[in-house]
Amino acid sequence: MELKGIHHVSAITASAPKNFEFYTKTLGLRLVKKTVNQDDTSVYHLFYGDEKGNPGTELTFFEIPRAGHNYEGINSISALSLRVASNEALSYWKKRFEEADVVHEEIKERAGRSTLAFKDFEGQRLILVSDEANKGVAGGIPWEKSPIPRKYGILGLGPVQLTVRQAEHTITVLTQLMGFRQVGQYPSSVPNQPDIIVFETGEGGTGAEVHVEERTDLPPARLGRGGVHHVAFRVDNDEELRAWIERIKKARFGNSGFVDRFYFHSLYFKEPNGILFELATDGPGFDTDEELEHLGESLALPPFFEPQRKEIEARLKPLDTKQG
């Protein structure tokens, strides 16, 4: 009953073509699955990751063409991190961002690691974090056909930052219900605000951390394009997932129960500040219905949506996802 780390993070984009361009061409991730939002099959759900979309490397986007701007605030997932192998890699990325006119900050230390914050074309807040001193959960393997040299490539997801008005309730859920451990803290970049507290699970390290930021100076967030919808944490298998479902029920949290996403199985619930958490199994994986060599090239639908393929495709705008 120990969560292994971060499984995936899902965000919102208003443009699947521009999103694909940025995350594959600029960041060098592999699109490992082009599918639909299973709760609204009229829109795309794009999954990016390492060479095969291993758990812990998946950054996903729901396309909502009419989504308004995301407004930062409390009760939100306020920043995502992406892991790179070294401090040297951060220097490579800083130069790349300068050449590509990607909005970015200077390289600076966060939680004892070198980091580089930047934003995508919709203002999505992302942070590259160096794994140079990481001793925790292993990262993924960058795709060999990525435009980024492998030694500088993105290894997977790093720490996720939660911003809340009152940290106490979120911390209670993380530690007493979900088994996270407090392992440190570091100063907020905003004057007169509390330190950001670091929690880890499983083997720990960059791929298994949640950073909790308490802010007293912000209004509630308004989710839109460039915002984060939810974060998922890794569960080993279905047996453990069902045990987690019972644990969440006993704690009297409203939850989704067992959800079959085909590529993995899930449970959803909201922590007390309204942030959506998901627990997701490591398997079956993204090569279940496509050959590894051709992941993400065509529209993939779980078997329970195949009878509706013609109608689903008719509602989607064609999206060219040639890679490599």
- The H-and-E topology, N to C, reads as EHEEEEHEEEEEHEEEEHEEEH
Strand-residue proportion: 25-35%
DSSP helix count? 5
The number of E-state strands comes to: 17
Structural features, described:
Helix content is 17%, strand content 34%. It has 324 residues and is α+β, with helices and mostly antiparallel strands. Strands 5, 6, 7, 8, 9, 10, 11, 12 and 13 form a nine-stranded mixed beta sheet that branches. β12 and β13 (209-214) form a beta hairpin. The longest helix is centred in the first third of the chain and has 14 residues, at 87-100. It is globular, with a radius of gyration of 19 Å. The mean pLDDT is 97.
Summarize the helices and strands and which ones pair or pack.
Elements: E1 6-13, H1 16-26, E2 30-37, E3 40-49, E4 58-63, E5 76-84, H2 87-100, E6 104-110, E7 113-119, E8 125-130, E9 156-157, E10 160-164, H3 167-177, E11 181-186, E12 196-200, E13 209-214, E14 228-235, H4 238-250, E15 259-260, E16 264-270, E17 276-284, H5 309-315
Parallel strand pairs: 1-4, 5-8, 10-13, 14-17
Antiparallel strand pairs: 1-14, 2-3, 3-4, 5-9, 5-10, 6-7, 7-8, 11-12, 12-13, 15-16, 16-17
